[in-house]
Amino acid sequence: MSVLTTAYNAEPFIASTVRSVLAQRGVPVEHVIVDDGSEDRTVEMARSAGDARVRVLSPGRVGRGQALNLAVDAATHDYLAILDADDVAHPDRLAVELRVLRLRPDLAGVGTGQWLLGATQEPAWEAVDTPPPVRDIGGELLYYNPLSHSSVLFRRAALDRVGGYDERRRALFDWDLYIRLMSAGYQLAKLGTPLVGKRTHPGQFFEGGRTVRYAVDCFTLQWRALSRLRRTRLNAPVLLFFLGYRLVPRGLRLGLRTIAGRRAPRPSGRDPAS
Q: In whole angstroms, what is the distance from residue 103 CA to residue 99 CA?
């Protein structure tokens, strides 16, 4: 099992990420980390575990898309898991996801929900139901991205078939990939149990104040997905609604959802319109 991480200035978090990979139970793992030109001690911290299962590549500042594809190319296993450089995985995550893929040959990948964590917070993992509830998410992809990229386990053959990640993109590499996998005839699924801890901190995309650009990029991707997913333009009003929703500041969106009772006190799953 290959776990793929791309990192840029992830010094405060990457050691914790690596530990969570090496602590996976029931499956052999390698951890392929591509450092995307970090200017801090990311590489040193990534190697601090002193474990031969961790391989760090340093190609320089190549961008997220190329870094992801370099990680795919360097991996030596048929199943490829993504874990972002500031996130952590439940110790049973890979074993549970692997069981699902082996039972479902139609799936290109399976992901899970996520706990939202503070920058220094560690998750209090709960036991995993066996088997956890699984739902197909292909019907949701036009409207929002239901799968946390950091939680997905892919079949390598599926990624190879669609050409991996689109290196021309500047964002939404995961959502674009999911749409291309679906258009190639694959299905994607999501487990009902959160198996990834997602850290929120000021260095992230939303916190950097790029909400407008992000909302426009989402709408553009969705508009192009209409034909890829064989939908009609009668869906356009719904896409415009989501465009307006994403333009609302993220903190306000999460607050409104909490008031409306649509967010659990201990959050799981990504923001549905992200």
A: 6
Per-residue pLDDT tens digits for 206-221: 444 578 888 999 999 9
Residue in the structure block whose two tokens are 């961008």: 63
Strands 88-89 and 79-82: unpaired
Q: pTM of the full predicted structure?
A: 0.86
For 2-200, the fitting CATH number among 3.90.550.10, 3.40.228.10, 3.40.50.720, 3.90.105.10 is 3.90.550.10
Q: Which residue has the tokens 């669609």?
A: 162
Tokens of 67: 């870094």
Give 41-77 pLDDT, tens digit per residue.
999 999 999 999 999 999 999 999 999 999 999 999 9
Grouping H, G, I as helix, E, B as strand and the rest as coil, residue 41 is coil
188 bridge partner residues:
109
> Is 118 exposed, middle or buried (CB count within 10 Å of its CB: 0-12, 13-18, 19+)?
exposed
Q: How far is CA 59 from the centre of its chain?
A: 22
Query: Measured between alpha carbons, how far apart are the two ends of the chain, in Å?
Result: 28
